Amino acid sequence: MGDQMQVIVEKLNQEPFKKSYNLISFDSLEPLQLLQLLSDVLGEIDPKHAVDIREELPEQTAKRMLNLLGILKYKPPGTVSDLSAFRQGLVTGSKAVIHPVLHWLLQRTNELRTRAYLARFLVKLEVPAEFLQDDTVADFNKQYEELMEAFKNLHKEHEQLKISGLSTAEIRRDISAMEEEKDQLAKRVERLKKRVETVQNHQRMLEIARQLRLEKEREESLAQQKQEQKSQLFHTEQRLQRAQVQLKEMQHMVADSKPESLMKKLEEEINFNSYLVNEKIPREMESKKTSVYFLQKLVAEPAMTQADLTALESEIEEVTAQMNQLIEKRIITYEPTDSKFSMYRQQASIISRKKEAKAEELQAAKEEMSSLEKQVEQKNTQAHGLGGSEVLTEDEFKQYVSRLRSKNTLYKRRRQEVAAITAEYGILQRTEELLRQRHQATQQQLQAIEEKKGISGYSYTQEELERVSAVKSEMDEVKGQTLDNMSEMVKKLNAMVAEKKASLAPVIKELRQLRQTCQELTQEREEKKMHYDSCAAGLETNRSALEQEVKGLLEECAQEESNYRYINCMKRSLEVQLQRAKEEMKAYVSPEPQERRRALREQYTRIILEQENLGKKLREKQKVVRESHGLNMKQMKMWQDFEKLMECKRECFLKQQNQAAIGQIIQEGGKDRLVL
Fold first, then answer.
1. Which residue from 38, 162, 226, 391 has the highest number of Cβ atoms inside 10 Å of its Cβ?
2. pLDDT range class, residue 563, cuts 50, 70, 90
3. What is d(CA 285, CA 277) in angstroms, rounded to the nearest whole number?
4. For position 639, what pLDDT does the model report?
């Protein structure tokens, strides 16, 4: 332990720390000072950790130091192998914990500085598996890993270049050699161009070579796309596996939850779904069916003319008038019982409308909640993909807002102080400038007067003489006072030293005894603490075992209770089914026809008979249609032939009429010629 402290003190007294410690002063440091010293050493290794520990919480300090020590691959010694004890010693500033850490850090400062620098870029961020399901996040993670590998290679090359020690002259020679090679290649390309231009169809051959190069590049891109699609398929399969695992976990969580809450949620969902299935959805379906029926009916009807529209409007007016007459008659024949019923009907309709509105609001709220949850998941995924921190909870956000407000208030106050000081500084600067201008003007006037009188420089010489004499007198007075004060102070110090020696002699004796007692008590405390830690560890082990046992018993109790409730529900459902079966049997064997008609068997029997009769009638109708089908087709063929015959006769008649008219016109023309 003494050798360790000696090494620590020597390292701290050297560059870059320059602490000027000795073994006694270092051993007498308080826990807070030890922690600050450790933080300074870590800050020398990694500049981000050069902070004042008084400005942060002890838990934050311990977490920061543990993270950096983990990155630097520090392993606690055997005496504090337990991580919890090591963490506790680091929080409290225990010498048994901090001294080995300082000894380990100070012996390999340069190596650890390089390791901390590399850790800034090579410590991989752990992205949760559920976020890697997103293709964008997976691509960013892949790019991040590629950049990390590139940084590793560049750092290795940098270190190799450092070791190789290439000189600037060699680099210049390499550059000049490469420039010469470049010129040679350019000349060779020119010669090849001239040779190619003499060949026939060189443009076509160049075009074919270019197409070949393009096709090869396309082949490479297609191969790359194929590889990317394979990787996407692999990622998709991984996402599917993770989703299946999450599904199993969710099912396990649901199975392990309390039965009361599950039953309550199920009852609420059953009530809501039963309302939707039994009331809301059938009503909407009925309205949709009605609207569809009217639309089909409207489509099946022929196109309506203006006269049809006028007739419909008149019919609507007549029906409206009849409705108004009926309403007037009802108002005239008003009865209180009808008013009560109408009031109840209105209340029932109002309640039903409210119920429908609340159901719609609940459905909209559920949809909005699901969309907001999706947005939150997307934002969390984007935040993790961009390297952001986790989302703050409500309490953490409140603490952050309170700290931000206090800092904002302090910032505003400081800014006001800075503004006041700036304003005052401007005023003083302006005052100084004005006074300097006045002094320069006065000096110029005085010099002008001295030149007129023929004694230029007299004022400056007089001021210098006065200043020198004043300084000499002040120095003489200070020397005399200093000598007197020094003699008096020496006398006082001698007297005080003698008095302090006489007064401190018994205190020093008592202090020696107290130091011995303190060492004994410290040793006893360390022994008691070790005994306490061992007892606490044993009790913690027993407590954890008891907690596991209690947890297992609670899970078993919850499982038994869930089985009991499930069996109870099955029993109730079976009782309800049995009761319905008894009622059905009672109605079926009842001698009263009215009761027997209510039985489901009778109802289904009646419906079956009606359907059988309907099927029988349809079959008879089908038989009649089949028997008369041939005759009807023959008759239709005869009518078609008759129609063709009549059409032919009509055409012949028209042709005959046209020929008769032409002959008549010819005869009239011959008669006219004879007359002429």
1. 38
2. confident
3. 11
4. 92
Specify the length of the chain in residues: 676
Spatial distance between the Cα atoms of 73 and 88, rounded to a whole number of angstroms:
19
Residue 61 near residue 35, CB atoms below 8 Å: yes
424-440 residue pLDDT tens: 888 888 888 888 888 88
Please list, in sequence order, all residues whose beta carbon lies within 8 angstroms of the beta carbon of residue 286, skipping any fewer than 6 positions away.
none
CA R_g for the chain = 54
Q: What b/e readout covers 18-34, taking b as 16+ CB neighbours within 10 angstroms?
A: eeebeeeebeebeeeeb
The tens digit of pLDDT for each residue in 428-475 reads: 888 888 888 888 888 788 777 777 776 666 666 777 777 777 777 777
Q: Are 103 and 8 in contact (CB under 8 A)?
A: yes
> In 3-state terms, what secondary structure has residue 144?
helix
Strands (E), 113-255: none
Task: State the pLDDT confidence band at 256, using cuts at 50, 70 and 90.
Answer: low
pLDDT above 70: percentage of residues in the chain: 83
Q: What are phi and psi of 56, to 5 degrees?
A: -135, 160
The Cα–Cα gap between 362 and 271 comes to: 13
Q: Residue 141: phi, psi to the nearest 5?
A: -65, -40
Q: Contact, 259 vs 561, CB < 8 A?
A: yes
Report how far residue 293's alpha carbon sits from residue 285's, in angstroms, rounded to the nearest whole number.
12
Whether the predicted pLDDT of 248 surpasses 80? no
CA distance 655 to 649: 10
DSSP state, residue 19: -
Can you give the residue ranges of every domain in the chain?
1-123, 484-587, 593-620
Instruction: Report residue 254's pLDDT band, with 50, 70 and 90 as the boundaries.
Output: low
Instruction: Look at residue 152 and tell me whether its pLDDT is greater than 70.
Output: yes
What is the rounded CA–CA span in Å between residue 275 and residue 359?
9
CA 159 vs CA 117, 163, 427: distances in Å: 14, 6, 58
CB 70 within 8 A of CB 90: no
- Residue 471 Cα to chain centre, angstroms: 75
Whether 626 shows a pLDDT value over 60: the answer reads: yes
Architecture field, domain 1-123 = Orthogonal Bundle (1.10)
How far is the C-alpha of 668 from the C-alpha of 278, rounded, in Å?
Answer: 93
DSSP letter (8 states) at residue 455 = -
* DSSP tag of 388: -
- Distance between CA 384 and CA 133 in Å, rounded? 13
pLDDT by residue (tens digit) across 358-402? 777 887 887 887 778 777 777 766 766 665 555 555 666 777 778
pTM across the whole model: 0.28
Cis before 31 (ω within 30): no
**383 contact partners, CB below 8 Å, separation of at least 6:** 389, 391
229-255 average pLDDT score: 77
**Cα dist. 375→141, 369, 383 in Å?**
22, 10, 12
Instruction: Give the integer Cα–Cα distance in Å for 86 and 80.
Output: 6
Greatest Cα pair distance in the chain: 187
Cβ distance 391 to 380 under 8 Å? yes
What tokens does 101 get?
A: 């850490």
**b/e 70-84 (16+ beta carbons within 10 angstroms → b):** ebbeeebeeebeeee
pLDDT tens for residues 26-45? 777 787 888 888 888 888 88
DSSP 552-564: HHHHHHHHHHHHH
Residue with tokens 């309403």: 327
Q: How far apart are CA 323 and CA 146, in angstroms?
A: 82
Query: Which positions ≥6 away from 77 have C-beta within 8 Å?
Result: 100
- In this predicted structure, the answer to whether residue 337 has a pLDDT above a threshold of 50 is no
